[in-house]
């Protein structure tokens, strides 16, 4: 009964807007009832997303519901106008864009999960923890590694990996953990800004064909500046005291290094498909998933022989620990790695793409584009995109910019990629890395702990923009 009443109220809202029914497809619906309701639905859903940490509500849930409501309203209105095919075409266009990105991210996440299952990240973490570095060296080491790993492994995975190291050696030193987590968030976001594989926003720009794979490297130095300025200032407040070293032996599982090689080959395949035959990079990524599946088949088939050889060696050496480890070996399963992908993030991305696509069809993005990229200087508009991405997740912000289709130079497309990527570092809630670390280091890395250092982070943000404008002025 409640569902029936909800549908009646929804239909009443739509039919109460004669102006909306009088316009033709593609016309301005921003002043109609359906437009206002769509904005309210999206705004309310995003408030729930921003309160994810406190509500304990996964961010995909509100945007999935909002996307359905917005497109239901659009469908009813366009049906009334006799333009149902136009709405269907717009819906299918948005679905295709999402499908390409979904499959691309799914393959990348599967490889990262495979590396994690083969204990590659555990070995790296164990090495850092066992070396007995002092807090300041560890601060720089986790930051620099975050900067250089995130272009390949994505900023969220990298941040969580480095946070685990910081938590293990930091103990009860809340000040060090807070500073180190801020440093990791900044480094991971900055590192992800100069690579299509580092962040969803850069991936969207690359898949749209606006910036080539090699051209992203023009952002390397500005991204480095964005990280180094706040890192240097914050490092002055990190003590040089020595934490207690933790000795832990971690053994790589069979095939770990070969999976890294296959991932590099997969990236090369995706770049080749995009650069040579101008196909979407996702085709190359899916081919790369085939590489991993065949290698998984090889690992399963050769597992009995490998275990027999290792067991013989362990028995000869009377190595009880090795025998125990061999007893816990399980076959490698690619589909289990696929199931461990970050499905909340992937479904959240669906909701965002569909919500923003609906608002674009209603005319709101065209209106915003008119103000930002016609009345304002494009450079200032792109700087504001970065500031906005600190408050609202950078995924919907970047998707909105791409949906606006502003006429920008290569320099400005690189600028908006940079600002959307690193602007999220200004606040802890501005990026997936920051939100994840607030959960991983609960009570030690907090919103207000990050906010205290925002002026320093802003210096890095401004420095990276100035660096880009000076170094790449020939691209504008």
Automatic annotation (TrEMBL):
Note the topology in the membrane: Multi-pass membrane protein
What domain of life?
Answer: Bacteria
Locate the Citrate transporter-like domain: which residues? 67-421
Residues that span the membrane, as ranges:
32-51, 63-81, 133-153, 219-238, 259-276, 282-299, 346-367, 379-402, 414-441, 453-471
> How far does the signal peptide extend, from start to end residue?
1-22
> Where does this chain mainly localize?
membrane
Q: Which Pfam families match?
A: CitMHS
Location(s) in or outside the cell = Membrane
Q: Which UniProt keywords apply?
A: Antiport, Ion transport, Membrane, Signal, Sodium, Sodium transport, Transmembrane, Transmembrane helix, Transport
Q: Which PANTHER family match?
A: SODIUM/PROTON ANTIPORTER 1-RELATED (PTHR43269), SODIUM_PROTON ANTIPORTER 1-RELATED (PTHR43269:SF2)
Q: Tell me its family.
A: Belongs to the NhaD Na(+)/H(+) (TC 2.A.62) antiporter family.
Know the name of this protein? Sodium:proton antiporter NhaD
The uppermost taxa in this organism's lineage are: Bacteria, Pseudomonadati, Pseudomonadota, Gammaproteobacteria, Vibrionales
């Amino acid at each position: 009964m409640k569902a029936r009443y909800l549908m009646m109220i929804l239909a009443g809202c739509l039919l109460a807007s004669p102006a909306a029914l009088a316009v033709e497809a593609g016309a301005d619906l921003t002043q109609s009832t359906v437009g206002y309701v769509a904005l309210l639905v999206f705004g309310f859903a995003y408030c729930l997303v921003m309160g994810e940490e406190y509500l304990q509500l996964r961010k995909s849930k509100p945007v999935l519901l909002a996307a359905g409501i917005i497109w239901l309203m659009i469908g009813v209105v366009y049906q009334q106008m006799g333009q149902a095919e136009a709405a269907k075409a717009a819906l299918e266009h948005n679905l295709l864009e999402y499908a390409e990105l979904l499959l691309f991210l799914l393959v990348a996440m599967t490889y990262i999960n495979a590396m994690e299952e083969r204990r590659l990240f555990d070995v790296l973490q164990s090495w850092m923890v066992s070396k007995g570095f002092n807090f300041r060296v560890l601060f720089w080491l986790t930051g620099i590694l975050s900067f250089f790993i995130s272009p390949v492994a994505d900023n969220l995975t990298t941040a969580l990996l480095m946070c685990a190291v910081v938590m293990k050696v930091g103990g009860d030193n809340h000040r060090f953990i807070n500073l180190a987590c801020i440093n990791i968030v900044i480094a991971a976001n900055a590192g992800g800004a100069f690579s299509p594989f580092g962040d969803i926003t850069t991936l969207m720009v690359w898949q749209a064909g606006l910036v080539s794979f090699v051209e992203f490297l023009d952002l390397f130095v500005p991204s480095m500046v964005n990280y180094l300025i706040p890192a240097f200032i914050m490092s002055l407040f990190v003590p040089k005291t020595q934490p207690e070293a933790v000795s832990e032996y971690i053994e790589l599982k069979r095939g770990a290094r070969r999976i890294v090689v296959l991932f590099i080959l997969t990236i090369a395949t995706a770049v080749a498909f995009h650069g040579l035959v101008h196909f979407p990079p996702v085709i190359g990524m899916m081919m790369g998933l085939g590489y991993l599946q065949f290698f998984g088949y090889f690992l399963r088939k050769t597992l009995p022989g490998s275990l027999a050889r290792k067991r013989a060696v362990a028995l000869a050496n009377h190595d009880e620990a090795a025998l125990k480890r061999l007893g816990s070996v399980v076959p490698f399963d690619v589909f289990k790695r696929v199931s461990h992908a970050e499905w909340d993030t992937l479904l959240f991305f669906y909701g965002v793409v569909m919500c923003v696509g609906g608002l674009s069809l209603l005319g709101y993005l065209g209106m915003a584009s008119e103000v930002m990229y016609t009345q304002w200087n494009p450079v200032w508009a792109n700087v504001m995109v970065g500031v906005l991405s600190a408050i609202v997740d950078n995924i919907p912000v970047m998707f909105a910019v791409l949906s606006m289709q502003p006429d920008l130079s290569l320099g400005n497309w690189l600028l908006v990629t940079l600002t959307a990527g690193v602007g999220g570092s200004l606040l802890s809630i501005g990026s997936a890395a920051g939100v994840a670390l607030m959960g991983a280091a609960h009570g030690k890395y907090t919103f207000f702990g990050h906010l205290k250092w925002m002026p320093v982070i802003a210096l890095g943000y401004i420095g990276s923009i100035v660096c880009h404008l000076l170094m790449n002025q020939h691209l504008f």
